[in-house]
Design brief:
Blueprint: H1 17-41, E1 44-51, H2 57-65, E2 73-77, H3 92-95, E3 104-108, H4 117-120, H5 126-145, E4 148-156, H6 159-171, H7 181-188, H8 190-204, E5 211-215, H9 219-240
Parallel strand pairs: 1-3, 1-4, 2-3, 4-5
Helix pairs in contact: 1-9, 2-9
Length: about 250
C-alpha cells in the first residue's frame, strides 16, 4: 500500500534563481510582518523541524530566520538528552524551551525523537514510545488551547538524493563536519525510520497541530514551500481568532 511519504512528489522544483530570490524576499517580508502581529497579540509560535539527515532543515531554518526580528525568536538544536535530563520525563526539557507569549521558537529536531530515533535505536522501550503518541498529542493540545500556534514540518528526500548529499558533504571541507558516522548508521535503517515516520503521521497529525511534508529533493523549492506554509498557518490562525492580517504593502 502506498504510504504518505511514497505519495510525495519529489520532482517539484524551482529552476529559476531569479524567481527563487524574488519569492524568497516576498515570503520573508510577510513572515516578518506576521511576527510583529504575533508579538502584538501575545501569540507564541512553535515550529517543529524534522526530516531525514541532509534533508535541508538547516538551510530552511536559515531562510526562515534571515530577516526576522532577532529579539523575538530562538532556534533550539536538539541532540540526545544530557545525563541530568534523563532523570525527568522526556518532555521536561522541551517545556523549558518553549517561547514566551509573542515569541517564536524553532525546534531543529524535537520531542518527536521519542517515536523516531529513540524508537528505532532502542533508547526507549516499546511501552515508552508507544504511549508517547498520546503524551505528545496532549502536550500540543495544551499549547494550542492556550496562546500558541504550532507548525510541524517533515523534510522529505529520496534515499538516492540523501546519498548524493552525503558524498557532497564528505568532499567539501567546509561541510564535512556535518557528516557523522551516525548519519551513515541511520541510513542503513532507512526502512525502519520510514515505518516510524508513517506511524508518527498517523497518530500525531491533528487539527490543532497538523504535519506538513516538504518535498526537499530541490532545496530552493523546499525553502520557499516552508516559508509559504508557515505564512498560511499563521494567517489562518489569526483569521480564526478574528485578528486582522498585516498590511504587506508592495513587498508582500
Amino acid at each position: 500500500m502506498n504510504s504518505r511519504l511514497d505519495r510525495v512528489d519529489l520532482t517539484l522544483k524551482v529552476d529559476s534563481k531569479k524567481e527563487y530570490e524574488t519569492k524568497l524576499l516576498q515570503y520573508q517580508w510577510r513572515l516578518l510582518r506576521l511576527q510583529h502581529v504575533l508579538h502584538e497579540e501575545k501569540i507564541a509560535a512553535v515550529v517543529v523541524m524534522e526530516g531525514w539527515d541532509a534533508s535541508g532543515k538547516g538551510g530552511a531554518i536559515k531562510r526562515v530566520t534571515e530577516h526576522l526580528d532577532p529579539r523575538g525568536f530562538k532556534v533550539w538544536p536538539i541532540a540526545a538528552p544530557l545525563p541530568h535530563e534523563r532523570q525527568y520525563h522526556y518532555l521536561q526539557r522541551f517545556w523549558r524551551k518553549l517561547p514566551g507569549y509573542g515569541e517564536l521558537t524553532i525546534f531543529d529536531r524535537s520531542w518527536y525523537g521519542r517515536v523516531l530515533v529513540e524508537r528505532v535505536e532502542g533508547f526507549a522501550t516499546v511501552e515508552e514510545w508507544s504511549r508517547a503518541y498520546k503524551e505528545i498529542n496532549e502536550f500540543e493540545k495544551l499549547l494550542s488551547d492556550d496562546q500558541y500556534v504550532i507548525m510541524k514540518f517533515w523534510f522529505h528526500i529520496s534515499k538516492d538524493e540523501q546519498l548524493s548529499r552525503f558524498k557532497a558533504r564528505e568532499a567539501n571541507p567546509f561541510k564535512s563536519w556535518k557528516l557523522t558516522d551516525e548519519d551513515w548508521r541511520n541510513r542503513e535503517k532507512w526502512d525502519l525510520y520510514h515505518e516510524a515516520v508513517e506511524e508518527m503521521f498517523e497518530k500525531t497529525d491533528t487539527i490543532h497541530a497538523p504535519w506538513c511534508i516538504i518535498p526537499s529533493n530541490n532545496k530552493r523549492y523546499a525553502r520557499l514551500e516552508t516559508l509559504s506554509r508557515m505564512i498560511q498557518r499563521m494567517e489562518s490562525h489569526l483569521t480564526a481568532k478574528n485578528i486582522a492580517l498585516p498590511d504587506y504593502g508592495e513587498k508582500g
